[in-house]
From TrEMBL:
Organism this protein belongs to: Natronobacillus azotifigens
EC number(s) reported in the record: 2.7.7.7
InterPro entries referenced in this protein's UniProt entry, alphabetically: AAA+_ATPase, DNA_pol_HolB, DNA_Rep/Repair_Clamp_Loader, P-loop_NTPase
Annotated transmembrane regions: none
Keywords for this protein: Nucleotidyltransferase, Transferase
NCBIfam families: holB, PRK08058.1
Any one Pfam family match given in the protein's UniProt record, by short name: DNA_pol3_delta2
Coiled coil: none
GO biological process: DNA-templated DNA replication
Gene that this polypeptide is encoded by: holB
Upper lineage: Bacteria, Bacillati, Bacillota, Bacilli, Bacillales
Name of this chain's protein: DNA polymerase III subunit delta
SMART domains, sorted: AAA
Molecular function terms, GO-annotated: 3'-5' exonuclease activity; DNA-directed DNA polymerase activity
Highest taxon of the lineage: Bacteria
Name of the top EC class for this enzyme: transferase
Length: 328
């Protein structure tokens, strides 16, 4: 549970906009909350939902202890509906089910709120169906959409929402906070770029899966430099078994991206920007193996692989193509 005061420490502008709306009783019928992972999108959406239901709030701050607040925190409020991607996307049937639910009278009030997480992952049919909801808003219906990429959402949906942009977290502050929590400088630097979220970073530090993932990433790099003919077999027999779902594979691609960024930093003498601090010697070997031009091409290939993964291309095809592109 977070309060508006806690959110304000990282998001002062967004917090001021929203709390002013709440205090003036001028809440919108639809919000689009945009921000990178770890910037507080979920916390803001929960606080907004409470603002529609809490009867004991003081100013803009909900009480956090009444029956409505407690059930919203737990995700069990009967008039607050949550939608998230099923697999790689939010489907038309999910929006249709939501519309059906909203034809019924609220169980405890006439107010209804729906929160759509990763709204940019709506299929075209789902987005068009949602648009009908937004075109004819009810005074007692509120939409809260969250996304990392507002530009991937239909213009017609964006134009009907109050956009709340959350600023990126200060990475230096996060890195220092992780070091204060007992993490090594090397891990703190890496987790800061991978998650930009304190709790997620602390979880990664204790995660055996992630420790093995990092080892596999280093093994793949070494294999590409010394034993190219075995690289595809390594991808099929070890990499894809460990990075077994799309979210895990995104982490693997992100680690590869930051490895090759480190290689580029060495090429352009920006050594203070290195992320994989404890692998400095390995990075130097990579910089000797891959030229600046090679590294640039590989960085583009990794970003393309991540886009293909978001577009639901089969993970095996994504990784096999990328491995071939990384071979010099």
């Amino acid at each position: 549970m977070k309060t508006w005061n806690e959110i304000a420490s990282n998001q002062p502008i967004a917090t001021r906009i929203l709390t002013n709306m709440i205090e003036r009783n001028r809440l919108s019928h639809a919000y689009l909350i945009q921000g990178q992972k770890g910037t507080g999108k979920k916390a803001v959406s929960i606080l907004l939902a409470k603002s529609f239901f809490c009867k004991n709030q003081i100013g803009s701050e909900p009480c956090h202890s009444c029956k409505d607040c407690v059930r919203i925190d737990s995700g069990n409020h009967p008039d607050v509906h949550h939608i998230a991607p099923e697999g790689a996307s939010i489907k038309k049937e999910q929006i249709a089910h939501l519309q059906k639910e909203f034809t019924y009278t609220g169980l405890e009030s006439n107010q209804k709120v729906y929160i759509i997480t990763e709204a940019d992952k709506m299929t075209t049919n789902a987005a068009n169906r949602l648009l009908k909801f937004l075109e004819e808003p009810s005074k007692k219906t509120a939409a809260i959409l969250t996304t990392e990429n507002a530009h991937a959402i239909l213009d017609t949906i964006r134009s009907r929402c109050q956009l709340i942009a959350l600023r990126p977290l200060n990475t230096n502050q996060l890195e220092l906070a992780l070091i204060e929590k007992g993490l090594s400088k090397e891990n703190a630097r890496l987790f800061t770029v991978l998650t930009n979220d304190l709790q997620a970073a602390l979880a990664l530090d204790q995660d055996d899966w992630f420790a093995q993932a990092r080892k596999l990433m280093v093994q793949l790099i070494e294999m590409l430099q010394t034993n190219i003919e075995e690289a595809l077999l390594f991808i099929q027999k070890q990499w894809l078994l460990h990075f077994s779902d799309r979210e895990q594979l995104k982490i693997g691609l992100d680690m590869l991206l930051y490895w090759y960024k480190d290689v580029m930093y060495l090429h352009i003498d920006e050594n203070d920007q290195l992320v994989f601090l404890s692998y400095r010697e390995n990075i130097e070997k990579s910089a000797m193996y891959w030229s600046k031009q090679d590294t640039t091409a590989i960085l583009y290939a990794i970003m393309e692989a991540r886009r293909h993964l978001e577009q639901n291309v089969h993970p095996t095809l994504v990784m096999e193509k990328l491995t071939l592109q990384m071979q010099r």
